[in-house]
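Sequence in, structure out. Go.
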Amino acid sequence: MMRVLTAAALIGASLFAAAFTDAADLESYRKKYNAVLEEIVLQHGASVIECNEQYAKSLGALLVQVKKQGDLDRTKAVMAEEERFKREKGVPAEPDADPDIKMRQAAYTKREAELELDKATRIVKVALQYDKILLGLQKELTASDRLEEATAVQEERKKTETSDVVVSAKTTMERASASLPPKGTPPPVPEKPEVNKTEVIGTIDATVTQVQDTSRHAIQVWRVLPPYAKPGRYRLSMQHAAAGADGAFRMVVWADKDGDGVPDKLVDRSREFMAKEFGEWSKWEFKTPDEAFFVGNSWSRQAGTVFYSTTMPVGYKGLGDEVFHNRSEDDVPTGRTGPRFTSIRLEYLGPL
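Output:
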């Protein structure tokens, strides 16, 4: 973790410059620059490992699902993808025919591209700062009539600008920029769901696979965003992260009566749901007259293992990315943190 924090700190302009306060000559500056580049590469590698782990966990959850459905062909397909991924540690250019595997591969590819762009952006920032520092040194040496040393600094600047690592990073950034819509293009306007149309929000196309022990709190709810939040009848579904009492929970609905964006009144709470095995979903129907409300779950102090992740799942929509929580399931969930996500789906069934 310390290596990650160091790399993140050094890429800022002022903090990066501060890293060179004890450097006095070209060789010292070069060593500092290479050290920072190494930190960025190490951090990127750690992020790729995490991405691979998330994809593997996602396949594992899918395998549990298709086995439970008794689908032999899809079970074999998921197992084959698991084996392929173990060997190749990446997704193929040609997506899988299975829609759930294809969706997960698309999410992996998107995340992989984001990580590459992040690394490239950091490298370019570091290179620009390095050049700025060297330019100052070059001017200082020239003014002191140390022309040979100034020329060496100038050559180092040229070498850095044309180095493979910097050129590659700039190319990555240019490709990413070319894929963006022209500047000034207005964002697409989402279609407002029809009042009587069945609408599912939350983790629509995928589920969260990271299991966390949330014993620090015993209730968590997410805000239902406009235009999906409206008075009506709903079906709330949530996934169990463990079998038996450890993964048991009650589903809850809280309202925002004073309009400050924070839950303040309990609308309804379900009976306790308990799963026979990991990965099962429980469903509960409720009604609410409120136009601003939150949904989630709560559990006793004996339970508390739920799906919990800081990474947005594929297809997520309609719910906020902040979780409101409390240590007691009977108290108002006024604590808040984000981004946080869980395996939750909310279906609008119709008006009251």
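Check: Residues 99-143 form the longest helix (45 residues). Residues 161 and 167 are 7 Å apart (CA to CA).
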